[in-house]
Predict the structure.
Amino acid sequence: MEILLQLIDELKNGADALKPYKEEYEQNFWRKFRLEFNYNSNHLEGSTLTYGHTQLLLMFDKVGSDSYTLRELEEMKAHDVALRLVKEAAQDPNNLLTEKFIKEINQTILVRPFYKEAETFDGQPTRRLIEPGQYKKHPNNVRLENGEIFHYASVAETPALMGDFIEWIRTEEQKKELHPVQLAALVHYKFVRIHPFDDSNGRTSRLLMNYFLLRYGYAPIVINSSDKKNYLAALNRADSGDINSFVNYIINQAIRWQQTYTKAIKGESVEDVDDVDKEIKLLKHRIDYTQEKEKVLSNQVLKKTYHNSIEPFLIRIIERMSTFDSYFLRKEVTFSGVGSGVINEVENSFRQYVEHIVENMVISPFTWKFSIIHRNLSKTRNVSFSYTTNFEINFTKTYYEVKYPQKPDISFKKLYHQVISENEIEDFARILLKDELNAIKIELGDL
């Protein structure tokens, strides 16, 4: 370990000797690091964004693909914001790390509260509310591949352990016995071992590690997602008592990125072997996006949009709303706008009707209105009660929009090359179901 630490100090001293740096050279490093860090740190936690789409999102605020959830896109951009916060905070030598700042990092990454699939203690599926920037309210232990449960700090222990964590950092900074890279590695490990938040502990830990590297003048580092197996193995060895294995792993990553930083400030290329391939893919994504976004309403575009997006949306919504069919004597699904009638079967009769309409209509902006009507509440004295769910799809020249008139704020717009995601469909269906459920409960006097 001492030899590795000596090497990284030689690299750092060599870089320091080149000060003042040319601004453009340092910007070249940060341009590369920003993209690599955001992509890899999120990929380690399951993000599906490609390298090219990450670059499009961060550099141009565009993606050119509809295969990602809104949360993935939001969290990638938010992670970039968190990186800037860490970089700025590390530049002030008087700015000591606090629990408040750690919570701010986590809150920034996660954007807003959301529900996440989880397991109960006995292995039953459940959903939990994730509250950004708040210490965990439920155990977040993990099941290992061998079936054993790995225990992090308990909910009750977490606040006190985080206080101890901050105190330990302050003590070590005052003692100055640990090398800064050792300190950064141990901060990462100790934080992960507590796992204080309900989500995003890994990303938060890697940001904290880079906070300390930057604070002491070292280059920040990236843990490549392609090296995830070795990264997790080093963490597992630390869990078994061999903390030096993890520290050595981090030191080796720090050496690699200190070398990259030195090359950058000398004005040398910092491209990796596969960077040219990445640029070629990025160019293709940009061209594809430009071509796709120019689509405007036409017979062909409407037909394709119906098949790829509208029909799956209708099938799933009608299917989800059929939950209440057994509560009523009759159900009807009707539509109006361009034509009108009753939908008996989306995949056959209504599809044929749509194809006929599309082939023969003169295309201009229009609205389709749909109603799912449950008539006559059965097995109760409230047989006269009926409930209608209305929603509509507006087709404009350049985009289509799904709306729920009962709640005007519930809507989403899509360009014609974009499909409605499964998550969007499920969220929309959940709102419709909840409203009908509440209406039935009110009718029965349960609310």
